[in-house]
Amino acid sequence: MLRTRFTEEFGIEHPIVQGGMMWVGRAELVAAVANAGGLGFITALTQPTPDELRKEIERTRELTDKPFGVNVTILPSINPPPYAEYVQAIIESGIKIVETAGSNPEPFLPYYKEAGVKVLHKCTSVRHALKAQKIGVDGVSIDGFECAGHPGEDDIPGLILIPAAARALDIPIIASGGIADARGLVAALALGADGVNMGTRFLCTQESGIAHKVKEQIVANSELDTQLIFRTMRNTARVADNEVSRKVVEIEKAGGKFEDVRELVAGARGRRVFEEGDLDAGIWSAGLAQGLIHDIPTCAELISRMVGEAEEIIQQRLAEFVVA
Ligand SMILES: Cc1cc2nc3c(=O)[nH]c(=O)nc-3n(C[C@H](O)[C@H](O)[C@H](O)COP(=O)(O)O)c2cc1C
Fold first, then answer.
1. What are the sequence ranges of the domains in the chain?
2. Residues in the ligand 1 pocket, defined by CB under 6 Å
C-alpha cells in the first residue's frame, strides 16, 4: 500500500486518479477505477443534460460502492452549457469529490463547500495552483506539458512543474501528464506529489468505452505521435497525430484562424473517432504517455500493477542506491 496525504484526506485507497475525459468518463470506467481503489471522475459534460448526469451518477453507484467524483470542465464557449444546473445535479446527487478544470472554480466553490464536497482543481501552472489554494480548494491536479488535452501556454514539463508546485503549495498535489506506469508514479511522489492523475493510460483500458481500434492505435503509437493544435490561438491542445490534426497545424502555420479549422475540430467528429473507431474522423486527445503504453489491461490490473511495481522500485531499486 502507498499512503499519502491525498489517500488520507480524500479517503481513496491508492494515490491514482482517472481525470475527466470528454466522451470517455462514463459509469463503467469510473466504477472500474473506484473498484480497483483509485479515484475515477465521471465527465459531467459528456452527459447531454444535468438530468442525464444524475442518471449516470446513479448508474455508477450501481456498479460500485467506493467513492468516485465528477469532473466539471468550464471552457470559454459561445453557447455555454447550463453549468449551474450541472453543479446542482452533482450536489443533489450526494457526490463528495469534484474535479474542476478549464477556468477558475471560485463562482461555484461556496456551493461545494456548503455541501461538504472536496474540490480537486486541475490547472497547468504554479500561479494558478496558488490561486486555487488561496480561494480554498482541497487539492490541485497539475498538468505538465506532456499531457493530453490542454497543457496551457507555458510549456513547462512535470519534471519542473511538480517540484516547483510542491515547494510553493501546502495542499495535496496530484501530478498529471505523461504518467502511465509505476516509474511515473514513483517519480511523481519523489518530485513532491501526493498522487498521480492519468488520462491517456485510462483511455487505453478494457473498461474505457471507446472503439478497440483507438486503443490499438495508442499501443502502436510512440511518444512522437501527438500534435499541438490551437497554438496560434493560445488555446493549445495536445491531440493524437492523424490526418486531421496535421491539417489543422498546417492551416494554422499558414495563418489560418479558428473559422478555417472549425469544421475539422468539431466535437462531433472527435466523438466519431471514439465511437466508430474511424481514426481520421476528427481530432482526439492523447498525450506523450502513448510512448509508455504497451497493452490494454483492466483498470484493476493496471492499478494493482502500478502500485505493486512502485512498492518494489521504492523498496528495492531506490533503497539499494543508499549506502552507509
Ligand atoms: C480523451 C481525453 C479527453 C479529455 N477530456 C478532458 C475534459 O473534458 N476535462 C478535463 O479536465 N480534462 C480532460 N482530459 C485531460 C485528462 O483529464 C488528464 O488531465 C490528462 O489526460 C493527463 O495527461 P495524460 O493523458 O498524459 O495522462 C482529457 C484527456 C483525454 C485523453
1. 5-210
2. 19-22, 24, 43, 71, 73, 101, 122, 143, 146-149, 176-179, 197-201, 203, 285-287, 289
Q: Assign domain 5-210 to a CATH class.
A: alpha beta
232-258 confidence digits (pLDDT tens): 999 999 999 999 999 999 999 999 999
**Which of helix, strand or coil describes residue 97?**
strand
Distance CA 187, CA 161 (A): 13
Q: What is the pLDDT of residues 288-311, one digit of tens each?
A: 999 999 999 999 999 999 999 999
Q: Which amino acid is at 162?
A: I
Of the chain, the end-to-end C-alpha distance in Å amounts to 27
Contact 278, 243 (CB under 8 A): no
Task: Give the separation between CA 273 and CA 179, rounded to whole angstroms.
Answer: 23
C-alpha cell at position 191: 518530485
Within 8 A by CB and 6+ apart from 206, the residues are: 32, 296, 297, 298, 299
Instruction: Give the C-alpha separation, 22 to 190, whole Å.
Output: 30
* Angle value at C-alpha 196, between 87 and 221, nearest 5 degrees: 100
Give, in degrees to the nearest 5, the angle at Cα 219 between 292 and 149: 70
Residue 25 C-alpha from the chain's centroid? 10
Å from CA of 143 to ligand 1 middle? 9
The model's pTM is: 0.98
Cβ atoms within 10 Å, residue 12:
24
